[in-house]
Amino acid sequence: MNPIKPSTFPTILRNSHRTLRPQSFVPTSYQCWRSYSAQASPSLVRATSLPAPHTGRIRVLTLNRPSARNAISAALLNELHAEVAAIAAERGEGDTRALVLASDVDGTFCAGADLKERRGMSAEETAAFLSLLRSTFTTISTLPVPTLCAVAGTAFGGGLELALTTHLRVFASTATVALPETRLGIVPGAGGTYRLPGLIGLARARDLILTGRRVDAPEAYFLGICDRLVQVLPEDEVEKVEMEGLDPDRSAAAMRQARDVALTTTVEVARQICDGGPVAVRLALQAVEACALGEKAENAAYEQVLKTEDRMEALRAFAEKRKPAYKGR
Predict the structure, then answer these.
(1) Among the four residues 85, 228, 289, 296, which has the most C-beta atoms within 10 Å?
(2) Which residues are identified as catalytic?
(3) What is the DSSP letter of 282?
(4) Which of 136-140, 218-222, 291-295, 315-319 has the lowest mean pLDDT?
(5) What is the rounded CA–CA span in Å between residue 232 and residue 158?
């Protein structure tokens, strides 16, 4: 298996994306959303399919709202929900072997909720937005396929909460995350108060949520917020990028490089996961997610995988000293 080079993958992504949106995705219970979602506009969530090892595809969803640093507007949320719902509808038995979330915007993953849009919403519209935001994030967190997130820039508020919905997070060394809601007079409202403690522990999560402070990539890796940390720039270059007004062309190129390397690394991790037996990966994920059930969950998963064709193929390949050819059965 040849890894996709950092210099080539972004080009593949830009040239091959296609979006699978319903023609008119408007929550039927909230007609007030039409003012936000009915207008024709460029795709805010770009969808790409890359071939996975053995069978199926790796689905890549990239946020693409550069004018607002990928802030989650109602229109962006509609598109993200539609894409995620399509994957969820497969129930782990379709072509999607893994999902990668990323950004098409240099310097940012997601700035969180679109506060400018929120200021113009009525109470009913705000309730509708929050309901769909939470259900979309919950759907991502419960997908039966491995989910990964590439973060190379800022992920604040709802942006970090979106990253927390995935099973694995890959950070470039230029990433910065925070849950700053208390400084804005609110609290995290899309899973931050329970997903972050579940990931890094109550004491550490309490610190980040109460102070709202920003955490750079090395500290995020130390705390356990990210699973892989990719150094993409020398430390002195990182400092220059962080200083506004210093060689903007060089800074822009550095941010683009960070985003490309983070995404390429994340896709490669997804490929490594998908190189395993499709059924085995799915059941292993199911068992790990049900770790509270302990031995019962593990035994149930093991009994299911014992009966698969892939397991027999693995035994034959081991005996014949070759790589197994899994078929997902």
Answers:
(1) 228
(2) 113, 158, 161, 181
(3) H
(4) 291-295
(5) 25
Classify residue 31 as exposed, middle or buried by CB count within 10 Å of its CB (0-12, 13-18, 19+).
Answer: exposed
User: Are residues 254 and 237 in contact, defined by beta-carbon separation less than 8 angstroms?
Assistant: yes
- pLDDT at residue 232, rounded to an integer: 86
DSSP notation for 85-126: HHHHHTTT-SSEEEEEEEESSTTEEE--B-HHHHHT--HHHH
- E-strand stretches of 41-192: 45-51, 57-63, 96-103, 108-110, 147-151, 154-156, 168-172, 176-178
Tell me the pLDDT of the chain averaged across its residues. 85
> What is the sign of the dihedral through the CA atoms of 131, 291, 324 and 327?
negative
CB 115 within 8 A of CB 165: no
Q: Are strands 215-216 and 176-178 parallel, antiparallel or unpaired?
A: antiparallel
pLDDT over 70 (residue 41): no
**Domains of the chain by start residue, with CATH:** 9-274 (3.90.226.10), 278-320 (no CATH)
What sign has the CA pseudo-torsion 114, 115, 117, 121? positive
Residue 32 has pLDDT above 60, yes or no: no
Residues 6 or more apart whose CB falls under 8 angstroms from that of 112 comprise 71, 72, 156, 157, 158, 159, 160, 161
